[in-house]
Design brief:
Largest sheet: 7 strands, mixed
Bound molecules: pyridoxal-5'-phosphate
Strand order of the largest sheet: 2-8-7-6-5-3-4
Distance between the termini: 29 Å
CATH topology of the largest domain: Aspartate Aminotransferase, domain 2
CATH class of the largest domain: Alpha Beta
Strand content: 5-15%
Number of domains: 2
Shape: globular
Helix content: 25-40%
CATH architecture of the largest domain: 3-Layer(aba) Sandwich
Number of strands: 13
CATH superfamily of the largest domain: Type I PLP-dependent aspartate aminotransferase-like (Major domain)
Number of helices: 14
Radius of gyration: 21 Å
Structural class: alpha/beta
Order of helices and strands: EHHEHEHEHEHEHEEHHHEEHEEHHEH
Length: 367
């Protein structure tokens, strides 16, 4: 079968696999003073340094977590006095963990409504934090983070950015982005699942979410997930090395695919195509064909794609991201996501298109 669901999780990269296998042989707690512990500590320090360097941060600014869900949960705890503003397109790990957040609307093209944000920031109470993702997991739309940061900083609000879907796709530098907090996840770039990062600016007052031992400079308790962390660093190194070439390649394949879809399936819609997007993601909708039907038919035909985000497939509710872009519920419920990655091949999309058009033609004939 052909895997076209990299935004849900990306297969383990060869370099990450080797690093993980080597780390499996290491017995030692990085907090122990003996030789075994020092060996683990050495691997951990190297991984931390590499990740810090790759993502434009200082190694003391990195806090390893169990994934981006925890990093996002943790980031929200940094907001002390005042409301939290979340964009309507954020991942559920933010939207579902902050019941009283104020929601920044999206425009039709998927970008956050900067005019709304500017107007809100000119009013009291001044928000404690603004959280806007860099790249949306369903549409691939790239948010204007520079503008968000400038607006938020003008009133002294903290800025958090969920950059999970930007890693390996865009140049990503914590210091250049100018945000206070940034979340990342290993398994979206070909590292193991269950490992993430929260990068935080120096001097923030942090309330730990996970409490206990003094690991991660007292910011996140628990014995470090050495295997995950070492795999994360190896995946990040490989992803960054090949990033530009990979994105040029994927972008060309995607363009050809989208042109062909629109030519051969006139009712098809590509969501987010009116905004800047990362090269690997296609959010494709067509009336009459429920996303679940498409996902199952494509699975039978040998292609793995998803209906909306992975977290919302399984339930029939239409994507909250598309709904926030003003897409009607029925239309939103017939959108699928095709996402490419490091092991995608030139023939994957043309073969998928053939199978998908067969389904599309059957549905047209039945209508
Ligand atoms: N944020 C975004 C944008 C995501 O796509 C995901 C993935 O599901 C997450 C956060 C959660 O990451 P994790 O699976 O590491 O908890």
């Amino acid at each position: 079968a052909t895997y076209l669901d990299h935004n849900a999780t990306s297969p383990l990269r060869p370099a990450a696999r080797s690093a993980v296998l080597a780390a499996l042989e290491v017995c030692g707690n990085a907090s122990s003073v003996h030789g075994f512990g020092r060996k683990a500590r050495g691997l951990l320090d190297d991984a931390r340094q590499d990740l810090a360097h790759l993502f434009g941060a200082g190694s003391g600014q990195l806090v390893f977590t169990s994934g981006a869900t925890e990093a996002n949960n943790q980031a929200l705890l940094t907001a002390k006095q005042g409301p939290i503003l979340l964009s309507a397109g954020e991942h559920d790990s933010l939207l579902q963990s902050c019941a009283d957040a104020e929601i920044i609307p999206l425009c039709e093209n998927g970008l956050v409504d900067l005019e709304w944000l500017a107007a809100r920031l000119s009013r009291k109470p001044t928000p404690a934090m603004v959280s806007v993702m860099l790249v949306n997991n369903e549409t691939g739309v790239v948010q204007p983070l520079e503008d968000v940061v400038a607006l938020a900083k003008s009133v002294g609000a903290l800025v958090h950015c969920d950059a999970v879907q930007a890693a390996g796709k865009l140049r990503l530098s914590f210091s250049e982005l100018g945000v206070d907090l940034l979340s990342l996840s290993a398994h979206k770039i070909g590292g193991p699942a269950g490992c993430g990062l929260l990068i935080q600016r120096d001097g923030l007052s942090v309330t730990p979410l996970v409490r206990g031992g003094g690991q991660e400079r007292r910011r996140r308790a628990g014995t470090e997930n050495l295997i995950g962390i070492v795999g994360f660093a190896a995946a990040a190194r490989e992803a960054e090395q090949g990033r530009q070439d990979a994105m040029d390649r994927l972008g060309a394949w995607r363009q050809a695919f989208e042109d062909a879809v629109l030519a051969e399936a006139p009712e098809a819609v590509i969501y987010g195509d009116g905004a800047p997007r990362v090269a690997n993601t296609i959010c494709l909708g067509v009336p009459r064909l429920p996303a679940e039907t498409q996902v199952m038919a494509m699975d039978l035909a040998g292609f793995a794609v998803s209906a909306g985000s992975a977290c919302s497939s399984g339930k029939v509710t239409p994507s909250h991201v598309l709904r926030a872009m003003g897409v009607e519920p029925d239309a939103a419920a017939s959108a699928i996501r095709i996402s490419l990655g490091w092991n995608s091949q030139a023939e994957d999309l043309p073969r998928f298109l053939k199978a998908w058009l067969a389904l599309y033609d059957r549905s047209r004939a039945a209508a």
